[in-house]
Design goal:
The protein is about 20% helix and about 20% strand. With about 140 residues, the chain is α+β, with helices and mostly antiparallel strands.
Length: about 140
Amino acid sequence: MKLDGAIDRIQPSPMHQIIVCTLCRDVPTGVRSGEGLCAELRSRLSAQPDVAHGFTVEGVACMAGCARPLTVAFQAPGKAAYLFGSIDAQADAADLVRFARLYASLADGWCNSGQRPPRLAGKTLARIPGAGKLAEGSR
């Protein structure tokens, strides 16, 4: 379809999602920092176009990680999904973007704790195998 002489290009939708809880409250301050973290992640990802084009960042009202706020999930079709908790919106943003780069590079999304960025150590609440991966065998 042409618009003002230009070709309207259809871009494939990003296949990776970063999902941030918007109801989690920071333990010391009681502030909900999820929306702010979404904005920070979008900003940091946009500064790295090679990673950003494959991701969306979305907020969701609850991911049931209330005992370990702030929670952040990574998911993509056919890949293992991750849920992180006890995320510090300011201090952990850079390592969440580092993890996004790693996650995008992994065909099945699977990595061990030593491969994840240092600030995410001990913050992995769950790694959930991708759909159809259980039938292929476990690691």
